[in-house]
Amino acid sequence: MRPADLARATGAALAVARSVGLSADDAVVLHDSNKVALRLTPCEVLARVGEAAGHGTALELDRALALRDAGCPVGDVLPDLDPVVRTHDGFAVTLWVYYPPAAPELTPSAYADALARLHAGMRTLALPVPRWTDRVGEALTVIESPAESPALTDDDRTFLAGRMARLRAAVEQRGAPEQLLHGEPHRGNVLRTADGPRFIDFETLCVGPVAFDLAHVPDAACAHYPGLDPSLLAHCRQLVLAVVAAWRWQRGDAFPDRERWAHTFVRTLRQGPPWPSLDALTRSLARD
């Protein structure tokens, strides 16, 4: 979020927490993107805050409850409170259990095991979610429209649109089995807890090949995931980089330092293989 919006979102989270009787005097930013995750203190509660417009926050909450009930390793809503979306000052706020980090780093084997268990639980559900091709189509629309991505050069627009369309066709032609997916299971959406990793943020659920999810996670974790097709993973990694590039180029995107990220994603796709995972590229950008 932009600094002014982040300050307002933080104020909204604190106000909502106090309105339900929680002791909330301060907040620590845990993850900042188009939606922000905050640790509220001293009550030790996790608040997720996004714009109140639309139904994404309510949808995420409903999906989280369904996944929890299916035995998936997911972050849980705050007990003893109705699991509803609360609004304040134009922001939608949901309150969740805060899990103190149990270890300094998420090990590759634990990451892969948690993702495999998430996928196993998801296979028991039939939630109404889009197919992965719909998400790619939305990103392609952003790239192809100068009104939606005005800062994108004509050359980069042609390159990204062509690459995205070819990759979508290539993954389709593989005919890999498809199932319910998280959609964005990167580190920012994984909590390290005393009883293992737990996933959060379920607005991006979709149906697709598991390689689409694995394109977001570290190489070392992919090596521990059973039955992964390396060739399909390479296609999906490129596709995910192109999709994320589209969001960073989109007019009005509030991601911090989005222009540097947008240029880096295009440059990485132009440089060719080996294709980095989304995790590797974002960690590199965060260090620079």
TrEMBL record:
Keywords: Kinase, Transferase
Database matches in Pfam families: APH
InterPro entries, sorted: Aminoglycoside_PTrfase (IPR002575), Kinase-like_dom_sf (IPR011009)
Transmembrane segments: none
Positions of the Aminoglycoside phosphotransferase domain: 109-219
GO molecular function, one term: kinase activity
Protein name: Aminoglycoside phosphotransferase (APT) family kinase protein
